[in-house]
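Protein modeling request. Please complete all fields; requests missing the sequence field cannot be processed.
Requester role: graduate student
Desired output: 3D structure, token encoding
Chains: 1
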Amino acid sequence: MPGVTGAHLAISSGFALLSFERDEPPLGYIETLAGELFLESSRDLARLSAAYDNLKTLARSPAESIKFVKELSEHGT
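Delivered output (77 residues):
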């Protein structure tokens, strides 16, 4: 994420959207200071999906990310 992005929908914790084969329902996973949460409701999954979509719009492109990582490695940061 570019440093100039500021606050975003997932700033407080990491999360994952998990999908499975064989008609198993999707699952949301959130890491918190109190432990991990597993979310199954369509409302909760929609919120995580919206947060993920928001992050994708704010994130660097793959090419920008590669350039950024190269610049960091060159400067020893």
